[in-house]
Amino acid sequence: MKREIVATIVALAGFAGLGGASSAQEFGSPELIAAAKAEGKLVYYTANFAEVEQQVIKAFNKRFPEIKVEMVRAPGGQLITRVKTEAAAGKLIADVVDHSDRALMQPLADMFQDYAPPNAADYNPDAQVAPQLWPRATLVWSIAYNTEVVKDPPKSWMDLTRPQYDKLTGQVFAQSGGTTWTRIMFERQVLGEDYWAKQASTHPILYPSGAPMSDAMVRGEVGVGPLLYNAIYPKQKDGAPIRIFFPPEGVPVNPYATGIPKTAAHPNAAKLFLNWCLSKEGQTFMIKELGNLTSLKVPPAYPEGFDPNIVKVWYPKFDDYVKLHSAWVADWDKTFGYRQ
Questions:
Q1: What predicted TM-score, i.e. pTM, was given to this entire model?
Q2: Which residues pair with 243 in a beta bridge?
Q3: In the predicted model, is pLDDT for residue 9 greater than 50?
Q4: What distance in Å separates the CA atoms of residue 227 and residue 208, rounded to the nearest whole number?
Q5: Residue 14: enclosing H or E segment and its boundaries?
Q6: Which secondary-structure segment (H or E) carries 103?
Q7: Phi, psi at 201, each rounded to 5°
């Protein structure tokens, strides 16, 4: 009997050991982690907000303090131009390139290494446009309003077309980038071909991106409008009189495209950084602290107020995302009277 108990304890210890090893390899093999620490640094190009990515880097460094991340931040179009120019001259110093517009990254896929995180099978294939490029971040659209300005708030996308919000609404204009293009595709394909015209009739104030629109909403210069959750959530978190909700008709999401160039000088540190970002730990941090969503098939968490039983997540069809862009953005500009 004693022998059987001992055997059982040994067996259980073995299972525990396997679980521990599996957990330890969530971010990569011991060899990869050792090689990454030996490299000691990586250069990170991103089109995302610098303040946001500084928080990601800080969280990564809590897990791996030995690796310094040097960030280079540039707006979307400028970042792509920089990557192409440096690559053509043989001087691309980026170890990781992170971009919000998958249509700009997909043609460059051959510049990137074949790479997959340890949990690759856990990711929604709709979020990927090439095997080398991964949805490190997934942003989600919401509707926000200032509670001191808007006393009868909207409850849906269609409510934003109501006359009572005339000159109270804000909009990020269509040409601002891939995340906004995802939203206006959703509006036309899901809410109807006449949705833009109905919305334009409320005379919205137009903004170049979510950052100035969020600031304007906090100040009460604009009362209500569609915003990326991660652009307005920090304002609410800091105590601004803001309410945010996810409309019942659905929420468009924009997965990023992130990869490791073949020319990366610190490929192991780059893989470790991406492995952490794409891990359950990294995705949970970005959901809870930054207001992201995730492209994991089984989300480890949800943003506040996001009920997966009610809210429908909408991924754009990538072919449409590429083919419809020029004509539909031109239509949007005409409908809203926007001139560059």
A1: 0.84
A2: 145
A3: no
A4: 12
A5: helix 2-24
A6: helix 102-105
A7: -65, -15
